[in-house]
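User: I'll paste a sequence; please echo it back and then give the predicted structure.

Assistant: Echoing your sequence first, then the prediction.
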Amino acid sequence: MTTTQPLIPRLCIIGVGLIGGSLARALREAGAVGEIVGAGRHEDNLRTAVRLGVIDRYDTDSTRAVDGADVVVIAVPLGAIAAILRRIVPHLSPASGADRCRQRQILRCRRCRADLWHDPAELRPRSSHCGH
């Protein structure tokens, strides 16, 4: 019997609330994800998410939570996104899908551009794998 690997072997969701939790459940039900790692500020909520089967494990430190993630979803209020990106970008794996697409996605956020990169050469995407 052959088993197929899920589309996303390890997913990290930062912000396991209504949106992040709903996405996690939908991907799990579709069989599209292997392990789901949650990250957030409130450990009680994260423990509940594990108990309900929404995520497999959690970390309150987003830099540890993204370690080894193939895809990272940030599901937090808009005002918190730039600070989270400043923390996690240096910890994204160069081999991950998150790394291949991250620069193009971050470029869409003017505030993130200003906060994360000072050298315009750093803004050039390193890969054409991301269709955005």
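Residues 102-107, 119-132 have pLDDT under 50 and may be disordered. Strands lie at 8-14, 33-39, 57-59, 71-74.
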